[in-house]
Amino acid sequence: MKYYCLGIKGTGMSTLAQILYDLGNDVSGYDDATGYKFTQVGLEKRNIPIYHDQSKELDPDTIVTYSVALKEDHKELQRVKQLGLKVVKYNEIMGAIINLFDSIGVSGTHGKTTTSSLIRHILEENGGCNYFIGAGDGYATPDNKYFVVESDEFNRHFTAYHPKYSVITNIEEEHMECYKDIDDIRNTFQLFANQTERLVVANGDNAEVRKINYNTNVILYGFGFNNTAVIKNLKLTEEGSRFDIYIKEELYGSFEVPLYGKHMVSNVCAAILICKELGIPKEKIYEALKTFKNAKRRFAIEKVRNTIIIDDYAHHPTEIRVTLEAARQKYPDKRLVVVFKPNTYSRTKDFKDDFVDALQVADKVYLTEIDCNREKQEDYPGITSSIITNEIEGAEIIDEDHIDKLGNELNSVVCFMSCAYVDKLIESFKTYIINQPKEKE
């Protein structure tokens, strides 16, 4: 079949395009962005063509799918509709694909990508799997039994999925432009959980997760002793994390992983429980975890001279806090700096006070102006990054042209955080570091 993917450089759409190609389809795409994005790696590897204008000739049998970032009046979306082509939501296509396999749907307000990546890694080390991970990573072959799919709650996308197994890492207020309140969010997760055929693995430390009425078999995990699977004897070091898992008060196994922060250990526990359910021996799980490398833009570390640069996808206050705490774990003796790029006006408005609290885990705070492609600033009068920086002593606004504001941080840990792209900021900072005399370090 032929597919035309609009917004193909988006993390979800890029991933879907790769999977469609791997399953033998003819795939091409359109994107407004002409600059390079990290999501292009898999597309370029498969020679999937990307168009930036309306020059792509489309056959009448072409199926079109599009990113939610595109407005309904987008010129290319309007063109394909005028041509009379079939337009299908990308999550509906994904739902149909995963139904062909024993699928594992990984959901949650935070931790989806890391937990999906952990399950994928363990399965790949033990026979292989298909995967859809929202960091621009996708792969599929009809020969694999399992399909790991990151299941996003944005716009209720994951309600199109009916997995064999599922994970719920946590439930918090997020994407409030799509939901009425926390009850609406929890009820949508409940729908997803009860569409799961065999087993739900859910974080019992999260109050909202515990409120779900499960009609499917469920294992609750976490640090609390009221869970079925309990994490004990946690040791957080500069090299990573070590811990034990007890199931129904009996030791299942001891594990170690090169990840940082209590939240990461929780994600690892979920992955272990899923893989145990799939019949993978704990010894094999243990060995696979030791070689795990996280997904793109998840606590990605680079050292430039004496400066540690961390690139992370964190964009919700909870994610920012735990990521900064993880940086403290790995670099306890370093000054900690955060450069945060807010990506929606609505989230900045809804969680302003939480952002203020979370960012102050760092020693110094910088924000860029809000970078949003799906909301209009005029709809949110008065909402700028300054409503956050004004509440934090010493906080500043920064951009690529004023990267020299980081001139006093050449021996620090500098965390760049956003679900928007921060690569240009990072490259500007790296260039600035390299151009400094060594005696400044």
Q: Could you give the order of strands across the largest sheet?
A: 8-7-9-6-10-11-12-13-14-15
- Helical stretch tally: 14
Assign an overall shape: globular
CATH topology of the largest domain: UDP-N-acetylmuramoyl-L-alanine:D-glutamate ligase
Which CATH class of the largest domain applies here? Alpha Beta
Distance between the termini: 57 Å
Instruction: Output the CATH homologous superfamily of the largest domain.
Output: Mur-like, catalytic domain
Q: Percent of residues in beta strands?
A: 15-25%
The residue ranges in which pLDDT falls below 50 over 5 or more consecutive positions are: none
| Rg value | 22 Å
What features would you describe in this structure?
Helix 5 crosses helix 8 and helix 10 packs parallel to helix 12 (352-359). With 441 residues, this protein is α/β, with parallel strands linked by helices. It folds into three domains: 2-88, NAD(P)-binding Rossmann-like Domain (Rossmann fold, 3-Layer(aba) Sandwich); 93-290, 3-Layer(aba) Sandwich (UDP-N-acetylmuramoyl-L-alanine:D-glutamate ligase); 300-440, Protein-Tyrosine Phosphatase, Chain A (Alpha-Beta Complex), CATH 3.90.190. The longest helix is centred in the middle third of the chain and has 16 residues, at 262-277. The strands form three sheets. Strands 8-7-9-6-10-11-12-13-14-15 form a ten-stranded mixed β-sheet. Strands 16-17-21-18-19-20 form a six-stranded mixed β-sheet, sandwiched between helices. A five-stranded parallel β-sheet has the order 3-2-1-4-5, sandwiched between helices. It is built from 14 helices and 21 strands. Strand 13 (229-236) and strand 14 (241-247) form a beta hairpin. It has helices at 11-22, 40-45, 75-82, 90-98, 112-124, 182-194, 207-210, 262-277, 282-290, 317-330, 345-350, 352-359, 386-389, 423-434; strands at residues 2-6, 26-30, 50-51, 63-66, 86-87, 102-107, 130-133, 137-139, 146-150, 165-168, 199-203, 218-222, 229-236, 241-247, 250-257, 300-304, 307-312, 336-340, 364-367, 396-397, 413-417.
